[in-house]
Design goal:
Structural class: mainly alpha
Shape: globular
Distance between the termini: 51 Å
Number of helices: 7
Largest sheet: none
Oligomer: single chain
Number of strands: 0
Radius of gyration: 18 Å
Order of helices and strands: HHHHHHH
Number of domains: 1
């Protein structure tokens, strides 16, 4: 089979996202991402373990390797990713008519991969960040990202009720 023939079998659904879904996802992403950032920054202040630095770190990306970026810009990158996750969360919830209970499960599923980002981020970092197998840092990272996951539906429910 040629590439053309193979591509005929691939059907991608059309994503018809409304501006309201994008807005809700953006708001949820901004708030939940900010909460995660504040939690990790607070834990870093309390423990001295650089989990907040790890969250914001982009120095392993070739175009940023030799640059010292301001914290606000690194945090903006983090918030952009969070807004994408928030928008995907809202889109799936509304497109699939997910139940309230299902929204909690969906948020955990969407956030689950972020737990494992600790390892490549720690491994690739040029900055001083927690070690690859620092169990306390891993625990703080995991708790923060679980709180992030739980904040998605917690923020969505009042946002929908506010219609």
């Amino acid at each position: 089979m040629s590439q053309l023939e193979i591509s005929n079998f691939i059907v991608l659904p059309k994503l018809k996202m409304t501006s309201k879904q994008i807005f809700k996802g953006f708001v949820i992403g901004l708030i939940s991402g900010t909460l995660l950032g504040l939690f990790l920054r607070g834990m870093q202040t309390l423990t001295g373990i650089k989990v907040y630095v790890l969250l914001l770190n982009v120095d392993f990306i070739p175009m940023f390797t030799s640059k010292s970026l301001p914290e606000w810009l690194e945090f903006s990158f983090h918030l952009a990713i969070s807004c994408v996750i928030g928008t995907i969360f809202v889109y799936i919830l509304e497109k699939q008519n997910v139940t309230k209970k299902g929204s909690w499960i969906l948020s955990l599923i969407l956030s689950f991969p972020t737990l494992f980002l600790y390892f490549p981020l720690s491994y690739l970092a040029v900055k001083d960040v927690p070690g690859l197998f620092d169990s306390t840092a891993i625990l703080i990272w995991a708790v923060g990202h679980i709180l992030y996951a739980l904040s998605l539906p917690a923020l969505y429910i009042p946002l929908v009720k506010a219609k």
